[in-house]
């Protein structure tokens, strides 16, 4: 099906399948002739498909020509008014499945280079076919055996695969729709109302792009089309002096362009402040998008520090300080995936990056309605998990690589790996112990010294320090990268997607700063042959000791679905921390004040909250 | 100094050093004769020391005899009224340091067996000497070179080590006190008041020991002297049927006996409910302890699930549900350590165990006031980090082993390891990929199959399933153990403390249930030779497939202090999750309702929270 010069063939194919979804026109309804042009709804749909495929963002202006493909002249001539419009290749395919064309939704899967010689030089994208027909959750209704490969440059179908098997029915619609209005009663009883309240308002201010939070933090905040929320020039007030810390953003996921409008009270708490963002269109015109960022103070009921001291001179000591944090949130809805991306700032100087994922998982259709019927393999042969009748949740990974361009009190920084080492005690030394552990610090001299694969059995701590500035005790001022639970790639290093995503080979990398090395996968990810990734930059092995450096960290997830992920998946999350490590001279919130009963009673009334001993 | 039969010698030594701390009597004050008996304050102090050393809990009744040691007859005879009381060995030691005996505080360090032949059969405990003298944070003022080893059975000093060096001064007092009243002004400006408010009250009830939360959870809650909070008989309402899940408790840390009274508004939020607990005394009398547990609902502003759908038939879909959880909290103050232990229940069936640690770190004195003066070793020779002048924060580990006695819809359960495996695709297969990954399930047949060391590079998922009950699709109903960031032991397996703590060798173990195998370190931990630990039980290699089984998981921390940990350390935390995995037929909170602006406005007034598109 790799064919000639008609540049809009693919579009017509796609549009013809799904046009009714926009309720504007259809090939079988509003259109009355094979040569009818695309209607507004079809144009919008094409645009939507391109966006969903990450071929363009909502603000791009890349569509030069967009016309319906003319059928073969002989077909047009043979057609007469009142007859069905000429079938196209895909429409034939659907007929044998007994499906209604108007309910087909096309899912562009991840495009990219796969090292197939005959495909070399082409920008191809696989398209999966799903069937909505009464649910908004068409992701749960994949049509088995039907795939198309689209040439994104030529804008035409490159390959078309139809391995129809009557054994594999369409997964059922029932139970797939997640909207409240679609639920059979009874719905769950709500919990009693709960809210975070700040009767005196918030302790943060937003002036243009500068956010300042009490006497703790100030930073510059913007939404980047590709990276999403970008925090720059973050500084902390330390004894009256603003000290610089870092600049960071989130990868190359088109996070910003796909930022979802945040729903008050559900996406963010009542005390949140919402920010509109402005992104450029391809024509240079500004596009204002509402509620793309929210900022709020969080009090989860946790403690910042505490101690109960029973043996102190003078009697029992009970000291506790509540933990309040500042959260900057955006949600990026990339097709069926919703990523909740939080930057959380603590008063003690710690910054936590959290990635929440709540989404509709990717599926494939299967003939099986029970694991036990799975040809005796008890599910292992499905390459996924049976999450509903005839529906497999496909196993997959997520890797989010963070670009952390730190400035610890200056631009000349170094990366330190502090290895935790078992030490053996020689017999006869008089010490009854046989071992202990201590640390061995290595300042990474070049990029090769800073390619880190995390290991539980051979642990290290990781720091970015300013080697030219120390605390009064001589410790270099620094921040520590504290990994959370994460995942490493399982793919063969030579597998083309892995070559393109070579940046996930290590969990940590450090590179010398170069302005153009911004996105871990390079400028053009999908058709990259892996020649412009973080891995390639690191292989230059440039000097990173006492240089302007970038720290890269990847939060990874393996996802093996379960039935609870159907039809929509509860949030899972991953995180890492940037934690001050001899950045301050001592605990920076030692002088924080506790909450007092009198103040709370004045604002919220009395409750029985006796302090007891 | 291993000596004779006088059974109270040690007590008198200890008391004489620290008696003034209780403001009740002192050897140099209230006591007027060398033969004076112990006063009430001294008795209480002895008791306190025993408690602090975990030799007894506050409710134990193990002190059979407790008298002052009689000095040598010649000394008593030579003494005359008005003269200083006869010096004891330790008092001599202190004189040369110029310290005031009344300000000495003794810290019992970890007792235990160290495989020293001459110590065999003895219960010994090391005691560190610190100097309060104007601070409640005596932990930051260790006295260099002065240690005692105490025989806990004979109740006498077994060894006394005084390696005084005039090079090592006492670490300074300034900056060590963490109480608000001890801070030099100005203190930090408080953030504006923030509270979690529930105008209609909570959605949970506590009836005797049964906690029920909305239509989501009910469980039995108690505080165990040794294990702390114990959650039993946790059940979830699933389509009107309460289904059983689990029974779990937290290790053998004497967590319960050391539970700290919780301070409202600082240890728990305003909407918390506090529970008193009753623990038995050795004589069988009940001891009521106030505010040892708090329960509260948490709304952190996070989302339980959400999705923005731009391409759905019928137009854009925006669905989001707020995440509200139920937290059961206790804080155990074990000497200088404060462990915040949370069990957090989610509406989607997930249970999260969180360990927060906020404490005063363990220290040793050093002659150094700067890392740069550390004989050129830049801190590496200190076996710790210089956190203040003359003060080293000692590197150490924390391991908290959880005993998870699960019942997934019945007592016969199995442990499944699902290994994530890279698969290679043969060239010529027509697939452009070179690899993919899938899972390979192993049902652990015996205990040897379930000794798990976590690995990022060779990942697995871990489940407890009921092999006899499946979902409608044939998936076995189960819960998944989701490890968080954790740490593995670095010690030599033959090192005596490691032999006693062999249970931290693996992060996960599964054993056949036996009532007496309750605490991972065995009944008597400190003097154990490692012959009654989880490791020993597991070595029996009993059958665990389709049996009544116990899952053990260890949350570990390596702690390398930083200056920010001085004089008191901000909270760090670790966690793991128990996550439903084909336990429900689908997402159990699909039918949850979103928050609505009307309801919030009615209770809290209007704010500008426009829902935008």
Give the structure's gist in a few sentences.
2 copies of one chain form a homodimer. Chain A has helices at 9-18, 40-52, 73-78, 89-95, 496-500, 534-538, 597-604, and strands at 104-108, 124-131, 142-151, 156-162, 195-197, 204-207, 210-213, 217-224, 228-238, 241-250, 273-280, 286-298, 303-309, 317-322, 325-334, 337-346, 351-357, 363-365, 384-388, 391-394, 396-406, 414-424, 435-443, 460-470, 476-483, 508-512, 549-559, 572-581. Chain A is mainly beta and 613 residues long.
What assembly state would you assign to the polypeptide chains in this entry? homodimer
State the total count of DSSP E strands of chain A.
28
Query: What's the helix count of chain A?
Result: 7
The helix content of chain A, as a percent range, equals under 10%
- Structural class from helices and strands of chain A? mainly beta
Description:
- Two copies of one chain form a homodimer.
- Chain A has 613 residues and is mostly beta strands.
- Chain A has three domains: 9-182, Nuclear Transport Factor 2, Chain: A (Roll); 206-349, no CATH class; 365-583, Copper amine oxidase, catalytic domain (Beta-galactosidase, Chain A, domain 5), CATH 2.70.98.
- Chain A has seven helices and 28 strands.
- Chain A has helices at residues 9-18, 40-52, 73-78, 89-95, 496-500, 534-538, 597-604; strands at 104-108, 124-131, 142-151, 156-162, 195-197, 204-207, 210-213, 217-224, 228-238, 241-250, 273-280, 286-298, 303-309, 317-322, 325-334, 337-346, 351-357, 363-365, 384-388, 391-394, 396-406, 414-424, 435-443, 460-470, 476-483, 508-512, 549-559, 572-581.
- In chain A, the strands form five sheets. A ten-stranded antiparallel sheet of chain A has the order 11-12-15-16-17-28-25-24-22-23, with no helix packed on it. Chain A has an eight-stranded antiparallel sheet with strand order 6-7-8-9-10-21-27-26.
- In chain A, strand 6 and strand 7 (210-213) form a beta hairpin.
- In chain A, helix 1 packs across helix 2 (40-52).
- Residues 1-32, 34-43, 61-71 and 86-91 of chain A have low confidence and may be disordered.
- At the A-B interface, helix 2, strand 5, strand 12, strand 13 and strand 14 of A face helix 2, strand 5, strand 12, strand 13 and strand 14 of B.
- Strand 5 of chain A pairs antiparallel with strand 5 of chain B.
- Chains A, B: The modification 2',4',5'-topaquinone is found at residue 337.
- Chains A, B: The active site is at 249 (proton acceptor), 337 (schiff-base intermediate with substrate).
- Chains A, B: Its cofactor is Cu cation.
